[in-house]
Amino acid sequence: MMTIFQLFWSFLQIGFTSFGGLSMIPLISSEMLGHGWMTSTEVSDIVAIAEMTPGPLGLNCATFAGIRVAGVPGALAANFGMLMPTFTICAAGAVFFERFKNSDVLKHVMTVVRPVCIGLIWAVIISLCMENYAVAGQVQLTSILIGCLGVYLLLGRKWSVPKVICLAAALGIIFCRG
Amino acid sequence: MRGNIKRAFRLYMYFFRIGWFTFGGGWSIVAQMQTDFVEKEKAIDAQELLDIVSVGRSLPGTMIGNVAYLFGYHQCGVLGGVLSVLGIITPPLVILSIVTLFYHSFRDNPYVARALTGVRAVVAPVILSAVWKLQKAGSPLPKPMFYGLLAFGCVLSLVFDVSSVLVVLSGVIFGVIYHFVSKRKGAAAQ
Lengths: 178, 190
Description:
Distance between the termini of chain A: 41 Å
Structural class of chain B: mainly alpha
Strand content of chain A: under 5%
Strand order of the largest sheet of chain A: 1-2
Radius of gyration of chain B: 19 Å
Largest sheet of chain A: 2 strands, antiparallel
Number of domains of chain A: 2
Number of helices of chain B: 8
Order of helices and strands of chain A: HHHHHEEHH
Strand content of chain B: under 5%
Radius of gyration of chain A: 20 Å
Oligomer: heterodimer
Order of helices and strands of chain B: HHHHHHHH
Largest interface: A-B, 97 and 107 residues
Shape of chain B: globular
Number of helices of chain A: 7
């Protein structure tokens, strides 16, 4: 019971102090090593696995650590801890946003924030391209071809996202070297 | 009230269905929401989706959890928000539980690695398809200002590695300035 609460508490702290993505890795690492829940090899393995499998990194780490330390209840507690910011700060933010979204100030502010946010998404796309199309300085021709096919199917043929992802997985099994 | 609960459960089912395809730090979900809610169902417009993403990205916690909550809340209140979040996290919870149990064989399986290399190759195109449509949605800002702000966000994050929270916050500051400038202009015109 104590362990389950500790898991919840650890991931609650990680959740509140992180803003998504790789920024939370040092925090996760120090919490896991500090409690003796994982070795440092396991931490780097889980980061790799959490990045590969679907789902956000933080929640995937929570599930992995939770199950390892205290089974399914541990995983649920860790996930719940990780989601606490959503159920508190974001829930309050949602009320605020819905109430004031027709005010002049918020309208003007969001008009300016939108293009900045689009810029942020472009930054994600560019860094993903650098990671996945050139691994260790080597241009990955197969990946680039699969990527081009993806752009064509999504924008040209209006394929849905899951369909494209499944096709890419199949093409990966046939053509990629792993 | 009855209808609201029903709608909240439909949101759970929707996010449960797309939760299996959460790649690229959750950005693939934004792409999916763009296609389903903006294009097909017209439940929200592209601007509203961008607002949800900006707010969700800049609050602490998991981005996609925040985005799901904000969308669910917008659709049918607190219950909608909570069920959307639970829906989107169920698939990763199931997948990661299985992966954790077969950790070693999963890590060393060549077919899994190849399939995931293939998936990683389309994550950028998936996000690209979303941003493309969001960008086309139009903005009252003059074009140079729009692209200037876009480049500002992109360069700050990509080149200078500034955290997205600070990038969005600086956008908010520009937004407040923009508000006062356009108000003054409006007053001068009258």
